[in-house]
Write the structure tokens for this entry.
Amino acid sequence: MKGLADKSRVQTPPEGDGQYLTFTSGGEMYAIAILGIKEIIEYGGLTVVPMMPDFVRGVINLRGAVVPVIDLAARFGQPNASLSRRSCVVIVEGHSEAEGRQDIGLLVDAVSAVLDIAASDVEPAPNFGARINAEFISGMARMDGKFVIVLNVDRVLSVDDMAVIGTACAPAHPEPA
Amino acid sequence: MDINLDSALQTYIVEARDLLHQMEEALLVLENDPNDSDTVDSLFRGAHTIKGSAGLFGLTPIVSFTHGVEDLLDRVRDATLNIDSALIALLLACTDHICELVDVVAERSASLDAQAVQRENALRERLMTYQVSTPTSPDTWVRQSVIDDSAVRAANLDWHISLRFGEQVYRNGMDPFSFLRYLNTLGEILHIVTTTTAMPALPEMDPESCYLGFDIRFRSAQTFETINEAFDFVRDDCAVHILSPRASLSEFAALLGQLPESRDHAERLLVESGSLLPGELDSVQSQLPTQPSPSTDLELPADPVQLRGDSAPQATAREQKSRESRYVRVHADKLEELINLVGELVIAGAGAKLLASYNPESELRDATAAVAELVEKTLDCALRMRMVPIGDTFSRFQRVVRDVSKELGKDIELEISGGETELDKTVVERIGDPLMHLIRNALDHGIEAPAVRQANGKQARGRLRLNAFHDAGNIVVEIIDDGRGLDRERILEKGRERNLVPAGATPSDSDIYNLIFEPGFSTAEAVTNLSGRGVGMDVVKRNITALRGSIDLDSRSGEGTTVRIRLPLTLAIIDGFLVGVGEAFYVIPLERVQECMELTSAANDAARRCGYIDLRGEVLPLLFMHDYFSIEEAGAGSRRQNVVVVHHLSKKIGLVVDELMGEYQTVIKPLGKLFGALHGFGGSSILGNGAIALILDIPALLTRLSEDSRACVSKSTTTSESLSVSQGQRS
């Protein structure tokens, strides 16, 4: 796990020049590379799946496919996102070793813009100090004199990792005494 | 072309495997009834087809090995070789080996491994021993015919075949020359004379009619039946006269009488073709006044009338052919895709119907109703395409039962019934392993050794029965043995020891027997006199549960055990009962629902306090879905609530929900790996209005509840604070 994290930091900035979608979640601005994004839809029609960790808000019906929705703020260990008129679900492609690709929805407070960011403007992620787990950060993009966290979507939405957390959150199955 | 050949090869592999499977079955039938000539025939045909088709693809190893098997079977068919258990064992080993050879082709690997080659050589040698022991038979055969008739000619292998094709032959799509070519594969055409006397004068001749006839001298070591079979396809349109090499002159005389040509001409034909020597012709002529001389050789009917008459078996053969051609082999993926699409169609159709119901126009409503009905029919049709009879899976166990019982020194008979019961192919594929386990268990531990059985006043031969039937939208598979049964007391004792049965409780028999499905319950030392009975039974149960099925067990000491597996017909569609809790919808599998009832507000308050209600004198524990799933109250307590009584095995529980929406057939959509750890939900389904309903997995939910409560009990004895934690962290 540690090795993996180190590797992802060494590789930064991985995408180089490219377009990024910026959005806010839990009051913080983030960016993700646009290539992994399939679409952005309005929040609504969510079905809650009980007994799942807080960051799994539920599932939505995306044109006949059942797509899980992840609360990004909760995934970063912050309180659940409060819903507003501007709440959006960003549909991205997640990966799982067993099942290949699976679409996943990211619940965010609001989407802002699509920006071109030059590779030279992306700094490597700090080892510590950020509000979120350093593993989730792919780099820090400089924008109008501010830094925006570029997310490592594969790590944030790793189905394998999230499923493990799901197991941990489900009430433990005690062995019969 | 390459691609075509490749797909043809795939077809060959599939067919060869089917044939081998059929041959195996036939051998097992022969073991019980060695005189069944139909089965011998089908066995021979199987080997013949495998060899023949392998030849088309140039699969030399299969051809050469199968050839030996075919030879052997041919002699079995001629009754020159008797069937005994050693021969059956050898032939079974041979089918296994051919299967291996086919596998080699299927895997495109270069050749067999050394072990298999060794095995092949050993088998070949054993086949040879049969070959050596019987060369005397053809001799006696000829000698017999010498005695039969003093007027016979020298023993030779030259047959005489007279063919007179009818006018319809070309119109029926037959080519006379193809038969001649085929004859050449059976032997050698020594001489052929073409007869054109049937040809009318040119103005009357119809170019689409056939006027040809042939007289053939044919050298072949084949039997009369084989040569006769060559003309099966044309028999209706062609007069076929076959005279065996040992035919007496009187038979030739009879033939002369039957040929349509004038006698002189016919005589000349026979001489020209070399079948009759000019000198012999005279003696034939001398016999003519007393003709027809009845053939004494019953084995080889030389009476042409009889030849034409045996059209009955040939008709069935043709019927079989046409039945086969009505099948289309479709790739499973394509079928899968179709079913998925139809599933989507069902959902979309339900949406359209819902919209139409808001519309005041009754015509639109009628139209959508008609569409919905068609969609439903399409769905039924699509699902039926995946249905296969379970009989094939069952009959595979014939071999298992035979081998295992031989190995154990027991005499066990497998009886199969309900093999025509159909269920989804995916279910059939996945039921094999659990069934195998249960059958092995029954053979090994259920049915006693013959001596023990006789001592107990039972028949020495044990009986194992596989039965399948439909029951209320499910298929039930039963495995019934007449062995010693389960030891109720030992299981109960063990259950008490492991705290699975509360002290002092007296569980029902079925509860006790079902304890053996508990993980790690029975080990050899746990239930000694049943050693191993139930090892891995929890795995069997898990496999069955994964198929949304259930397993149940019934046993009578000394009389036997019945294992009953209940399975859904298909995995793609679920018949559910739709309920609403707050804003959310849940689908309960219909087969789990026992009944529904209203929970009045007065009863609700009481029920909330104690957690159970009185169901006709029975204590029914309740699960308040709002609380358990932490769903916010939508209409807050004021709405009346309902109880859905669900059951699994002998456990029952009442689910407290807000709304009952009724029966609902729906396509199951898996939730994906992210929800893999989630116990209690079997998938999801999209409703007509686009909302998603989760499908409750009642057995998993019940297991989880009982584990939760057990955790509560065990923890509350240490500290009462931990209680709230163990009930679920989300609450």
